[in-house]
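Researcher: Quick test of sequence recovery. Tokens follow.
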């Protein structure tokens, strides 16, 4: 169900098991660095947008030579803060993608945006450039909390951006961060219910994590704040799924909730272990070339990446073949995040081996995994209990 009054048709995410082919474009700049964030994002005084547009298009063309002609199933502008791109830059990149590959009408094209009023001025331009889904980084609907999270926008500005986005784009998602210091189940329930009343068809709800090298890491280590303990965090997680379910949003992935049919097609490409091209500083890609699976990473520092692309026509940092065993591990790592789980037949065809029955039985008895039949396909699924301890579960499963 689309979130907005705009009536443009958008192709829905593919059914379980169809991995698709996505294009990811990384914009590495932000207005300021949020204290919790370890994404590849940088604050700079000036960005030459047309230089960046040319370099991104050049990288896309280089990847087209590797992939050959393919049908694109999703496009995603992530960051950093892609809403700092001008609509012309977004348009130039979208045109390059459409020139290079087949992009059917209505293919999901998402852009991540910060909800400041300045960035909201770009929304109409993005829509005209072909963006049909906006992912807004709202983070909280409480001004005190926004301040704590170092955000540059108020709750009011975020609300205005949500309203404008709903008018402008056929589909809307927004991000919230919860399990914040001192957050009670009651206050989170009220905030989440308010968020849901703004009728996004998709929400990304992340528990606050302390990442290496961030300002929050230093503050946390000094004891400036504490996070909810494991049991409280687990209770908040269960509450989140219950409240989303009241509004018909299903927990289709560990941190992602959607009305059925409104799942993010692009993120499903990653989780279903499909192929994707990644361009821009630090972007990752996974491509099947000549029967081999290649993992690519781009140079991480923006200046370094731009110079390399302009001087040599190639911003690659690494491009390595992924062995079948590593592919199996990656497929489980990604796929068990999803409620639909992983096809055991696909896993076995890829790796040439089955997971040991004794291991599956043990994890099943512990209530962490289950097997489900879908037609001829047996799928391995992490239960909701298993998804809460996914890293430990994967450690056992893939040992
Ligand atoms: C690339 S960022 C979002 C893009 C956009 N620049 C913004 O800030 O709104 C993706 C999302 O990851 C989440 N995130 C980043 N670091 C996090 C952390 N340490 N803990 C929890 N969520 C985090 C935030 O919700 C953020 O919106
Ligand atoms: S959360 Fe978003 S705006 Fe903040 S530093 Fe990270 S990428 Fe930039």
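Model:
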């Amino acid at each position: 169900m689309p979130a907005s009054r705009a009536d443009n048709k958008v192709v829905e995410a593919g059914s379980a098991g169809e991995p698709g082919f996505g294009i990811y474009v990384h914009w590495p700049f932000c207005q300021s660095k949020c204290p919790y964030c370890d994404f590849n994002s940088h604050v700079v005084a000036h960005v030459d947008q047309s230089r960046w547009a040319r370099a991104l298009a050049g990288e896309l063309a280089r990847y087209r030579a590797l992939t050959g002609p393919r049908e694109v199933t999703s496009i995603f502008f992530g960051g950093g803060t892609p809403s700092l791109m001008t609509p012309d830059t977004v348009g130039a990149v979208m045109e390059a993608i459409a020139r290079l590959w087949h992009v059917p009408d209505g293919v999901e094209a998402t852009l991540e945006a910060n909800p400041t009023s300045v960035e909201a001025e770009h929304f109409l331009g993005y829509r005209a450039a072909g963006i049909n889904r906006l992912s807004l980084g709202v983070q909280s609907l409480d001004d005190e909390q926004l301040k704590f999270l170092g955000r540059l926008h108020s709750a009011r500005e975020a609300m205005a951006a949500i309203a404008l986005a709903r008018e402008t784009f056929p589909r809307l998602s927004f991000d919230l961060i919860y399990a914040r210091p001192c957050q009670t189940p009651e206050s989170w329930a009220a905030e989440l219910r308010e968020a849901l009343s703004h009728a996004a068809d998709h929400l990304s709800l992340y528990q606050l994590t302390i990442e290496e090298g961030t300002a929050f890491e230093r503050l946390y280590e000094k004891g400036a704040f504490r996070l909810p303990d494991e049991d409280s965090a687990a209770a908040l997680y269960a509450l989140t799924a219950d409240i989303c379910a009241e509004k018909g949003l299903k927990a289709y992935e560990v941190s992602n909730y959607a009305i059925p049919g409104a799942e993010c097609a692009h993120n499903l490409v990653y989780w279903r272990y499909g192929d994707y091209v990644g361009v821009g500083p630090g972007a990752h890609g996974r491509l099947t070339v000549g029967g081999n699976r290649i993992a690519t990473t781009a140079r991480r520092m923006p200046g370094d990446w731009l110079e390399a692309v302009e001087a040599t026509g190639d911003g690659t940092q690494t491009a390595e073949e992924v062995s079948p065993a590593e592919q199996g591990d990656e497929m489980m790592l990604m796929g068990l995040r999803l409620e639909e789980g992983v096809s055991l037949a696909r896993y076995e065809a890829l790796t040439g081996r089955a997971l040991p029955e004794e291991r599956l039985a043990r994890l099943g008895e512990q209530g962490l995994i289950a097997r489900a039949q879908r037609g001829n396909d047996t799928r391995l699924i992490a239960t909701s209990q298993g998804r809460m301890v996914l890293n430990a579960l994967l450690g056992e499963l893939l040992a």
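Confidence is low (pLDDT under 50) at residues 1-16.
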